[in-house]
Amino acid sequence: MKPIRNFHYLLCLGVLLNAAGVTAQEKEGKSKDKDQKEKTDTTSKKPKSIDELVKKGTYKKGLFNTIEVNTDVYFEIPDSLLGRQFLVVNKLSQVPMQVNEAGLNKGMNYENKVISFYKDTKAKKIWVKTINPIASSPKMDAITASVKDNFSESIIEVFDIEAQNIDSTAVAVKVNKIFDGNQKSFNDVLSNTGLGGSVKANLSYIEQVKTFPENIVVKSQLTTSVNEGGTDLAVTLGVTSNLVLLPEVPMQPRLADARVGYFTEKHWHFNDQQHQMEDQRFITRWRMEPKPEDVEKYLNGELVEPKKPIIYYIDPSTPPQWRQKIIDGVHDWQIAFEQAGFKNAIVAKEADPNDPDFDIDDVRYSVITYAASPKSNAMGPSVVDPRSGEIIESDIIWWHNVMTSLHQWMRIQTGPIDPKARGNKFSDEHMGEAIRFVSSHEVGHTFGLKHNMGSSFAYPVESLRSKEFTDKMGGTAPSIMDYARYNYVAQPEDGVTAITPKIGVYDKYAIEWGYRWYPEAKKEQTLLKAMVEKHQHDPMYFYGEQQSYLNTIDPRSQSEDLGDDAVLASEYGIKNLKRVTENILNWTKKKDQSYIDAGKLYFGTIGQWDTYTNHVMANVGGIYLNNPVFDDQKKAYEPVGADMQRKAVDYINRHVMNIPQWLFFNEIIDKTYAIKNSPMGPYEQTPYTLAREMQYSVIYSLFNDERLLRLLESELYHEQRNTKSEFYTVENLFDQVRSEVFKKKSDLDILDRMTQKNYVDALIVSTNKLFEKTTVLGINPNSNLQVPTLCNHLHEDRAARNINYTSMKRVSEVTTYKRAELQNILQILEKRKNKVNQSTKAHYTDLTIRIKEALK
Known about the structure:
The chain is of the alpha+beta class. The protein is built from 25 helices and 26 strands. The protein has 4 domains: 43 residues; 198 residues, no CATH class; 259 residues; 264 residues, no CATH class.
């Protein structure tokens, strides 16, 4: 139909033109003449001299010389840089309060792309093209021509050549449109931050342009509006676009190994000899190599200084009392780089405000940026060359309010064993040590290291109570890249003082694996493989991928946990939480002040109890995920032992199915409820409501479909292999929990009835949800008391192991078991309904109606 409509449109247009006394043919002829004239004018028009622009404005020399004439900005692009690849890095540099509170903060990198500039002398234009540099092939191979054609560049922008220099070796183009919000080709801040909408051009402008030897920075103020409660709210974002010149010859990439945790860049390699494409991953790392004159010394095992050390500068806005602690946290990594053969490889120092060459925006300077924000976090992003994985520059972003989280963690996890961690405010020295630990952790990310959440599993739980062991090992885990923050296992009588993680055995090994220099690529791969194989059976060198707390499969690799036995560690943790609860009012006492601090600490204590439960629960249906290679005798998937799963459920029965009254119903609630911070202000949570929600969350998660399917997979495996080893089944899980929830045959109190209702409702809701027939909005099964994370990384692979357990759940055994369990409960209720008091009988009747209605 489209051609007909177009024809009808042209026919009507012709009638209108004829009515005006002009035929379509005449109009077309005039249009052609006009186009030809314009084309001739454009071709004959000569660009003005760059000198003319310079006389009118401000001229700055750098990677591209820049010319600013009033509000117009020009880049002088030399022929020598045409065709070279640049990395465009876009970051937030200023945010208003509303965006700050939503989690978007200064320093966050939201968009990167690789671009190149090309000159078209005929059309007098500069074309800008972008490419995803994911594919490579040897220069002389026949397949290289096909790689170029199938992974080609795309045009994203074009500029008119406004001027040129005398010998035509450089041209000037006006670049306002790509930085003032009129075009999204270089910077699409609204889409990439999730704000959406469009930039208001009349309320946006280019604020500043800086040019340096290796990069150009353009700062802009871009305004949009967001609708908040029916009202349009103006939001102006300060954005910084950084054009970084990439090395002409990329660094020799290092191929990733799943047994060592590095951030990676995806890559596809083609060559003529292949039978299939190589799907590779390059680790991200700095280019670190010995000076030419030191190569022989280095290869002979002597420590040498690198050709180019990694230098971090402390943001001048950092409060003075924390600067040296942050510097110490950086320098703690020296020992790891020495294991890789380099001394003085990393340097941290305060920026000299009088140094004319220093600028935070200069890509030659990596800066630890201090952000005034209510956000309690820190992060360590890097600018990475996607062609090789080379880290060009790193910026650690340190949010001021991270100290709030540190203060709470130390009080709750170490208050019972450390008097310095009990006050409403710590000494600068005590807080400074915590800041040093966070600095070390974040700097580790800027070296390319990912979280190693499995590291703490290497230590036996009882060893964490040993002063001798913790002093010798230097803390809570073999890696500072784990979230093994503080020793909550040690008891007051143990005398343990080394309670925070330090640079450990794994960290030194990982840095050596990533940074030891080899002169030949083929030899490098052989030696790196040998290094991993040497340690692959030693738990001290184990790497455990970070998992989502919503779906933890491998219980070894969890955030905030300690030791090799989550049940035992959590039992010790509970003992210390009881001590904290008994002292909350004393530790937060301030004369003539409200109890709000006590309420917040109380809420955090309940959150820690919930964290321990989740650590334990991960063992139920848990699978140890390994990364085996041929001939190493490891299994890829190993179910957690039946004894451990049974022990984990027993813990949940004792500490969750039986709501701990010492935690929820104590003298604290005479003064304050647990108080949660929220955007609307402090949010007070009543004990019964909070206990009910927390318990429901655990029950719902314990009988999560995927957990039950993992148990079924394990059972099927043992049946098919006819193994003699014991395994834990879905029936075992239901029997063990039901026997606890319905153990009381006499009259029930409110908490007993609450637990039974939670159990039944979780089964009903999850079963109905599977068939999409539920009309009941169940409580969010995810705890609202999750301990906050300390750092955030855009490139962190949250689910590196994509294992499908949940396909076609509807025809699995999950629903069969849940409905059978509801039938079992019906039989119990029927037997007991006439042997209890009136309130318990009413409760049983209610449960019976709910179950029968669900089962139809």
